[in-house]
Every structure is written in structure tokens, then in C-alpha cells.
Amino acid sequence: MLDPDLLDILVCPETKEAVHLADSEVLERLNASIADGEVRNRGGEEVQQPLEEGLLRADGQLLFPVRDGIPVMLLDEAIPLDT
After folding, report:
1. Are 54 and 22 in contact, with CB atoms under 8 Å apart?
2. What is the band of 63 on the pLDDT scale with cuts at 50, 70, 90?
3. How many CB atoms lie within 10 A of CB 81?
4. CA-to-CA distance for 78 and 47, rounded, in angstroms?
5. How far apart are CA 53 and CA 73, in angstroms?
6. C-alpha–C-alpha distance, residues 83 and 77, integer Å
7. pTM above the 0.70 mark?
């Protein structure tokens, strides 16, 4: 689980919008698509590992993965979402 103080200061590096923890429904839907081989990050690479946590940009368009408790705030690693 991310430190709440860290979460308060993180923003999207592209738009500077706030990010928040993705809820379990978003993660379940995304992980089902990952299992089906249907998910690519913005860098064009297929996402192969299911996500335990993710940070959702305020507009709901991008999800930044959290790996081993560390948010990956790189745009190429962000996962575009259909809303």
C-alpha cells in the first residue's frame, strides 16, 4: 500500500493532474484484459504482469502501474484506459 503522504504529492507527469489509487473494479477489468493479451502501455509494449495496484489519473484516461509498492510514473509505462 502506498504511503498516503506520497500519494498526496504525486501527479501525472504529462498533465499535472492528480492521481488516485485505482479501485478493485478497474484493476480486475484491466487484469482480465492483460490475461487475454489485449493491453499495451503507451510505449507500445504488451503488459504481461497483472497489477496489484495502480494510480489512475483524475481524468480516468491513464493508469500508472505500481510495482513492488513503487509507483512507476513514466509516460511510456502508463496504460491508456478506455472510459
Report:
1. yes
2. very high
3. 19
4. 10
5. 13
6. 19
7. yes
